[in-house]
Amino acid sequence: MFAAQSTRQEPEQTGLAPAPGGRLWWRLDGARHLKSGRAALIAIHGGPGGAHDYLEPLAALAEERAVLLYDQLDCGNSDKPGDPASWTIARFAAEIDALRAALGIGRFVLLGHSWGAVIALDYAARGNADLAGVVFASPLISTPRWVADNLAHRRALPPDVQAALDRHEAAGTIDSDEYRAAIAVMMRRHFCRLGVEPQAVQRLFRKLNLDLYRTLWGDNEFVCTGALKDYDGTALLPRVAVPALFLCGEFDESTPAANRDFAARTPAAKVSVIPGASHTPMFE
Q: Which of 81, 102, 156, 266 is the most buried (most CB within 10 A)?
């Protein structure tokens, strides 16, 4: 599903589409396929508060189908009304049909990466005759499971790294250089294992809407203090009536064991684990 890409691919088309609450920036590649009957791919980025940049390798699939990437409201190049009342799963899911209407997209496959999988699951569980399939890529499906798995990753870090994390969290000094260095060790193991972060990943972090991230999630991957604190979408999985692929890296924050458990609850699901990869298998 993911194709590695060393240089940035310029989009065929870009624009702004009206959606609930504001305009969404989008890029469309392979528009020539929209009338072919072949399902388009709509990809939902992670975060919360991220942007489309790191999903750009998916544009390579435009050789075979239309590929739509976009920035969620208050993210990336989209409008930024900054209204926390609109930061709900249902409103983010409504962006999908707004984009489809604006661009004339019929049959499609939905891909949600990380936080984007929350949106994809909400949409798929409600059903749509044009939805041909769904890819849950390195997905957040259950906050309690995500936190438990990442605390297990944390306990496997070197003792001095764990001590630095504990010390600064207790002191409230998580903005310190030492704490950031400790978090970077975790990220190199479980977010992106490449020696040099791809430029698209660097752009993702530069663009990250921290207000949105902290409102919905919190300060780090180990604990959720935001609106998603009690989120658990596992009850929605049996309602996904289309073929589903759970995709993750061997060392992912979204662990292979969790993805296998989620797939077992989903009627027509398969699991693919990418050896040697973590949370950004599109580059690894």
A: 266
Active-site residue, 114 included: yes
Q: Any catalytic annotation for residue 113?
A: no
Options 78, 252, 254, 278, the catalytic residue: 252
Query: Whole-prediction pTM value?
Result: 0.94
Q: What percent of the chain has pLDDT over 90?
A: 92
Rounded to an integer, what distance in angstroms lies between the CA atom of residue 239 and that of residue 236? 5
Identify whether 254 is a catalytic site residue: no
Q: Which one, of 1, 47, 5, lies nearest residue 246 by Cα?
A: 1
Report the C-alpha gap between 79 and 178 in whole angstroms.
35
What band does 2 get if pLDDT is binned at 50, 70 and 90?
A: very low
Q: What pLDDT, in 10s, does the model give residues 21-42?
A: 999 999 999 999 998 989 999 9
Query: Could you tell me what percentage of the chain is helix, strand and coil, using 3-state DSSP and rounding each to the nearest 5?
Result: 40, 20, 40
pLDDT at 4 over 50: no
Catalytic hit among 114, 138, 254, 278: 114
Q: Which two tokens stand for residue 123?
A: 């949409």
Using CA atoms, how far residue 33 sits from 96, 107, 136, 161, in Å, is 19, 11, 23, 49
